[in-house]
């Protein structure tokens, strides 16, 4: 799933490549992806791309006239920039990976695609960002939050720190991958309970959040959209590295699996050497 650093980089790439170009047309190939009906997609034609930005993990493409195309890429969505499209024929609704296509006046443009069978990519065409449900509920940006805000938000929701850190209404922008990386850097168990964290642990977690996300943004900015996934993978220390040695201590990276996701951690670095039981209702190690 694209998280804060990748979406920030995608917005930066669009600012560099698409801003100033006018839209030839916006095409919807996956009807279920478009969550709004007014304005219609035809309203975008002829408008210039003014800006591209990020709200948590939402990508926001702004067209003149204060018209926003807001996109949540979900787990398997991505943006592919095309210097030229193979055909000028409009897309037909179907079952292919392309959900939305934006054609620009120089022949370039971008596709919003989604792999797999679970189609959860969501696009909203709005004049008011507050009408996008996910954006309206976002908590403070995880990278921008100062320590007092970070501490207050984290302690506002009692629960396992892994789940709270990825709750977009608490702090926005962090997902499954970077939460694993942040907790590893902070030397905290993913199952530690938020209201039991000491002030020092909160401060360490805040510093790790800023460091991990900041480093990832720095690595990602300036990369082409096609290169961002590889850049993300290259910077991960524990996430998606089950069975490999921890780059900090050399212990084996372990995994806890859930129904539709998993987390990775280092027992030596994070849980005092105690493995976490690999089942949903395990006895928590704190």
Automatic annotation (TrEMBL):
GO terms for biological process: base-excision repair. It catalyses: Hydrolysis of DNA containing ring-opened 7-methylguanine residues, releasing 2,6-diamino-4-hydroxy-5-(N-methyl)formamidopyrimidine. Its EC number is 3.2.2.23, 4.2.99.18. Pfam families: Fapy_DNA_glyco, H2TH, zf-FPG_IleRS. Residues 2-94 form the Formamidopyrimidine-DNA glycosylase catalytic domain. The keyword Hydrolase applies. The keyword DNA damage applies. This is Formamidopyrimidine-DNA glycosylase.
């Amino acid at each position: 799933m694209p998280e804060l650093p990748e979406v920030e980089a995608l917005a930066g790439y669009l600012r560099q490549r698409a801003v100033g170009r006018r839209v030839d047309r916006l095409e919807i190939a996956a009807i279920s992806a478009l969550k709004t009906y007014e304005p219609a997609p035809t309203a975008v034609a002829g408008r210039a791309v003014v800006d591209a930005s990020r709200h948590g993990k939402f990508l926001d493409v702004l067209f003149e006239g204060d018209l926003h195309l807001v996109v949540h890429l979900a787990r398997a969505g991505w943006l592919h920039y095309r210097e030229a499209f193979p055909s000028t024929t409009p897309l037909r609704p179907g079952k292919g990976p392309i959900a939305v296509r934006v054609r620009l006046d120089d022949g370039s443009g971008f596709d919003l695609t989604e792999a797999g069978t679970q189609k959860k990519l969501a696009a909203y065409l709005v004049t008011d960002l507050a009408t996008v449900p996910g954006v309206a509920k976002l908590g403070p940006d995880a990278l921008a939050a100062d320590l007092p805000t970070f501490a207050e938000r984290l302690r506002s929701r009692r629960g396992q720190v892994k789940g709270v850190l990825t709750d977009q209404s608490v702090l926005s922008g962090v997902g499954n991958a970077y939460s694993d990386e942040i907790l590893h850097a902070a030397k905290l168990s993913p199952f530690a309970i938020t209201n039991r964290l000491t002030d020092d642990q909160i401060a360490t977690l805040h510093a790790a959040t800023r460091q991990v996300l900041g480093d990832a943004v720095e690595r990602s900015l300036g990369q082409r959209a096609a290169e961002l996934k590889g850049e993300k993978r290259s910077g991960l220390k524990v996430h998606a590295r089950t069975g490999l040695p921890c780059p900090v201590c050399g212990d084996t990276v372990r995994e806890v699996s859930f129904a539709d996701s998993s987390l990775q951690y280092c027992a030596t670095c994070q849980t005092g050497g105690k493995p976490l039981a690999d089942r949903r209702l395990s006895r928590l190690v704190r």
